[in-house]
Amino acid sequence: MLAEKLACISGAGQSDVGRPSSLSALALTIQACERAVERAGLSMSDIDGLTTYPGPVLDGSGHSPVGATEVMLSLGLDPTWIGASTEGHAHMGAMFQAIMAVASGLCRHVLVFRTVAQASARARDHAATAIGRGAPRVEGGWSWLLPYQAYSATTLYGLYAAAYFERFGATSEQLGAVAVNARQMAALNPNAIYRKPITLDDYLRSRVISTPLRLFDCDTHVDGSTAIIVSHRDSAPDLRQPPVLIESIGMALGGLGFGDFDNADFAELPARKVGDMLWSRTDLKPKDVDTAQIYDGFSILTLLWLEAVGVCARGEAAPFVEGGERIGLGGQLPLNTSGGQLSAGRLHGYGHIYEACLQLWALADGRQVRDAKTCLVTNGGFGYGAMLLRTD
Amino acid sequence: MGEEQQERDRGAEAGHAIRHLPVLDLENRAFWTGGANGQLLIARCGQCLRYIHPPRPRCHLCGSGLIDREAVSGRGRVKTFTVNRQPWLSGLKVPYIFAAVELKEQPGLHVISNIVGCPAESVYMGMPVRVEFEQAEDVWIPLFRPDAEGR
Question: Which of A13, A308, A342, B96 could in theory staple to A271 by disulfide, Cβ–Cβ 3.0 to 4.6 A?
Answer without folding.
Answer: A308
